[in-house]
Amino acid sequence: MNRFAANPLLQARRFSLKPLFYLLPAFLVIGFIYIYPVVEVCRFSLLDFLKTPRQFVGFRNYGLVFQDERFYQSLFHNVLLLLNVPIMSTIALVLAVVINDHVHGWKVYRSLVLTPYVMPIVAIGFAMSNFFSLNGGFNQILAMVGLGFIKKQWIVDPSWALPTIAAVIIWRQTGFGVILFLARLSSMPEEIIEAARIDGAGWWRRFRKIIIPELGTVIEFFVTLNIIVMLSQIFAFVFVMTNGGPGYKTWITEFYIYKEAFHYNRMGHATVAAVILLIITVIFIIISYRYREKLAEEY
Prior knowledge:
Layout: H1 3-6, H2 8-13, H3 18-44, E1 47-48, E2 55-56, H4 60-66, H5 69-81, H6 84-100, H7 106-118, H8 121-131, H9 137-144, H10 161-186, H11 190-198, H12 203-214, H13 216-232, H14 235-241, H15 253-263, H16 267-298
Antiparallel strand pairs: 1-2
Helix pairs in contact: 3-16, 4-16, 5-15, 6-10, 6-13, 7-10, 8-14, 10-13, 11-12, 13-16, 15-16
């Protein structure tokens, strides 16, 4: 007699490889699209591309990149741009709550805040380059309200070029957050908010004690997404608006990788920067998830 048939416990423990064959195509596709490029970038960072055939040089490329002041400056600019994340998250959350209260013209406001997000970044970059130029719309607005004495070429001024790019990024990304938060708010039972209002809870108390906890997972997703954006998806803004200038004042890590790879023909340095950026991005994502867990415990 088959021992598996005689013993139900052993029969339950029997392992079948059949389900794995159904999952194998998906694993292969995921591995080819996501895992293989990462492995290749890590491998390239250990090679010398200036020699034929390429030679293995170990961590020499890493040492050279860590000695490059431009790399640290580019990475520091990415860190500064991370300050955009809490700003745009707060703005998006407040706008979503206000629009969700169905103020007069709320449908128009909803469309207006989403419009920048669906526009191509290249088009936004060119438009904002003109808007923040010396004779652009922003300086004209300042002149109309009596602040013409502070007008300048915002994207050329070394002190204001990076903050100007940051403002454009906030303007574009906030709309996506508003739509995300509105989608979650629309699914919340109205009885919860109404009960809190009847109990005398003011707008701020309802916002802090009810709305934020209810939107916790959506806020986590939006924050994590924008951490990734600030670290590795803002090349187009810099390239179109300032091309890294003035000097190195708007270089970010992506732009450093682009310059090293295609202008200076130092592919080894570029892949090293890409690996470091990947590691930093993963670390920030882990930190954001840990913070979300603590926030969930508090509420």
